TrEMBL record, chains A, B:
GO molecular function terms noted in the UniProt entry: monooxygenase activity; oxidoreductase activity, acting on paired donors, with incorporation or reduction of molecular oxygen
Coiled-coil residue windows: none
Matching Gene3D superfamilies: Luciferase-like domain
Span of domain Luciferase-like: 29-384
The protein, known as: NtaA/DmoA family FMN-dependent monooxygenase
E.C. numbers: 1.14.-.-
Amino acids binding FMN: D57, T94, H144, Y148, S218, S219
Domain of life: Bacteria
Length: 447, 447
């Protein structure tokens, strides 16, 4: 077990994961559309030898604009630009299986994998919400189960496309005038419930074969999907016990799906609020809370809980009689997490908004670098995590502080790499094998 | 008229536009998936103060692999990487209106426009061919007129999305906790024949407002579309007279569509085969022709002409009785150009393949730098072109030779810019105005 190392992913988000971060004097309210802001973040994460960067996404404009920074550069586009500004770090882009075509999306990820030298990852989302659906000709969002059925077929088709060129399909025989070997091309000829894809991809097989497959839904459908396809899972867990239960459940499901559970890495989100003393960390947390606009928080919470406007009162607890997760069509697991958090800690709506404002349901932990490193070590060594999705409350300063003060402690404890070393691809970084090509027949025995 | 300047676009294509270029000793058969090859090309073009780079594309693998390099990095992805390696040059990506969603594609172009500082361009194609259709769940390609009707609606929706944020929608009032002004967001609420798009784009309005709109179809539908939407048109013309007629026709259509004909730039393609003497240029052309594999050429020509296999004979002319353009559903204008070229010059199939191998119907011109500059000046000053789409037969050497030997002559004659100067966006480079926002009401008079 001494060989087991932490994996760290930097979850980039405009001026930070705290919803009020943009209001701090240090923050640039235009950071979300500034390439140089993102280059700076990527280079800080690479200095900290993080495994990867990650960008969330949804194909809709979150209302409303008054509240906080909205809109973002499209993740695959932004990460392609960051690929040229970095050398080692993985690049994980969110993209929706509900609102893309397999041929187009498979091609874009293959292109990024080639351009980055094997550093592409795909955070596979099915995209909750009617707003997104209405941007793609639908009146309402497809049902949760329907979205996951489409996602599974999407993945099957995408993997056929990524395997449609054998690694050695290019012959490049100039003298004979033969560039490629058509017998090493395998058109998917796929006709399914959601997709028809006849031909091979128009990009050769990539350094990784295909991008690292990442997933973040923690509903029943989400966990079943992860067990079948995902190589890394982002998750929001509030307590060690919950995180251990989730970890054990997902590893067990992965084993039952016929896969090596070591080939699925579980990465809970953590929002580290750092101070050189505990009091300083608490003060930093308090400063952020003072910048929250609670009227906006109420609107967002009502939306998440699918309640009519003006239902919630700021200084009262959540009302009784909220529907069960099974009745919710949107982001199911996030819904349950928020309701359980409020109930368990007997929070008023104001207190709940304060907690959510820091990390939208992810674990916020304010403390010294030693305390944050302790927390990470505990979860890592006690069966709750293979690593963490680091979500700094303020960017770039929160990422810089983590790299300067927490990463050295993790290294000193032997938990985290000191340098990138010889492994080159994102999948190698996460200790995962390169996928075999599904069309490859065993080589014939030598005569 | 002394102020009128040429516009030059570098059309990048693997190892070059000549189909046999990959077989030359200098060529890298893996160049199509090598970022550094493309960075090198982009920097040569920028040294030559070209207006823009351009990448063609189609969402299918061209059969068959034996013949020549196939597959390519997806253009928007590759051009995003090139944006970070260049400072001035425009970046024109081909993308299909038949096989994309307006919301996704509008967002990607907006992201590239922001990342590149206003250098994005979109070559709008409707994508001919059943192969592409079958990669997107269709059995056959949509009819030509249907594809163009969808393209027109696509453009209307995309422009609504690009205008959905006013330029000053971001307020960034940290003290008041107000980030944006929701009254300056304009959701398209579009419900049309092909698309339903309800919400605003999730990217702010970009430096150019939207990408430079480029078009390359020269069929009746294509020309009507160009007159309505295009700001630059790539075209294949074999003779000065044909080019003049096309130029006059397109400018007249643009005027009739209510637009300033100066706001549509016509750029014929030219394949310059350069030598320091005319004999050297002819020898270079001959060397390329000797590398053509004619069996492959016959297959491709049969496919373009929609003939059964083994119809054509290498040393005979094209057969009589080919169908008229109106009966063709694929690339209509290319079909006519090829048939007319063969008839006009009484070419055998072998001779036709030799001619097409150099530039797929674009004008191949072998000569000294002076002769090429003369040809360019003639077309530019005699009403046939506003500039050229430069298609080097071999890359990078052919682009390098053009920049080293032809560009200085064009500058010395006062036809082309000496340096990029203060204009920053691609649209400014082409001398075009930034589009007004369609949702913007005139400012109220001062009280």
């Amino acid at each position: 077990m001494t060989e087991r190392k932490l994996h760290l992913n930097a979850f980039l988000m405009n001026t930070g994961h705290h919803e009020a971060s943009w209001r701090l004097p240090e923050s640039d309210p235009y950071a979300h559309v500034d390439l140089q802001h993102h280059v700076r973040l990527a280079r800080i994460a690479e200095r900290g030898t993080f495994d990867s960067l990650f960008l969330a996404d949804g194909p809709q404009l979150w209302s409303n604009l008054a509240q906080r920074p909205a809109g973002a550069l499209e993740p695959l586009t932004l990460l392609t630009a960051l690929a040229t500004a970095t050398e080692h770090i993985g690049l994980i882009a969110t993209a929706s299986t509900s609102y893309n075509s397999p041929y187009n999306l498979a091609r874009k990820f293959a292109s990024l994998d080639i351009i980055s030298g094997g550093r592409a990852g795909w955070n596979i989302v099915t995209t909750a919400g009617a707003e997104a659906a209405r941007n793609f000709g639908l009146d309402a969002e497809p049902a949760h189960a329907e979205r996951y059925a489409r996602a599974a077929e999407f993945l099957d088709v995408a993997r056929k496309l990524w395997d449609s060129w054998e690694d050695d399909a290019i012959v490049a025989d100039k003298a004979a005038g033969v560039w490629g070997d058509d017998s090493k091309i395998h058109p998917p000829r796929h006709r399914g419930r959601y997709f028809g894809v006849e031909g091979a991809l128009n990009v050769p097989r990539t350094p990784q074969g295909y991008p690292l497959l990442v997933q973040a839904g923690s509903s029943e459908d989400g966990k079943a999907f992860a067990a079948r396809y995902a190589e890394a899972v982002f998750t929001a867990q509030q307590t060690l016990a919950d995180a251990q239960a989730f970890y054990a459940d997902l590893k067990s499901r992965t084993r039952r799906a016929g896969r090596d559970p070591g080939h699925l890495k579980v990465l809970p989100g953590i929002v580290p609020v750092l101070g050189s003393t505990e009091a300083e960390a608490r003060a930093a947390e308090q400063l952020l809370a003072e910048h929250i606009v609670y009227d906006h928080g109420v609107l967002r919470l009502e939306r998440l809980l699918q309640l009519p406007s003006h239902t919630l009162e700021l200084d009262a607890p959540l009302p009784d009689g909220l529907p069960p997760e099974s009745a919710v069509e949107g982001a199911k697991s996030r819904y349950t997490l928020v309701v359980e958090l409020a109930r368990r800690e007997r929070l008023t709506v104001r207190q709940l908004i304060t907690r959510l404002g820091g990390g939208r349901g992810h674990l916020t932990f304010a403390g010294t670098p030693e305390q944050v490193a302790d927390q990470i070590e505990t979860w890592f060594t006690q069966g709750a995590a293979d690593g963490f999705n680091i979500m700094p409350p303020v960017l770039p300063s929160g990422l810089d502080a983590f790299v300067e003060h927490v990463v050295p402690l993790l290294r000193a404890r032997g938990l985290f790499r000191d340098a990138y070393g010889p492994r080159r691809t994102l999948r190698e970084r996460y200790g995962l094998p390169r996928p075999a090509n599904q069309y490859l027949t065993p080589a014939p025995a030598l005569a």
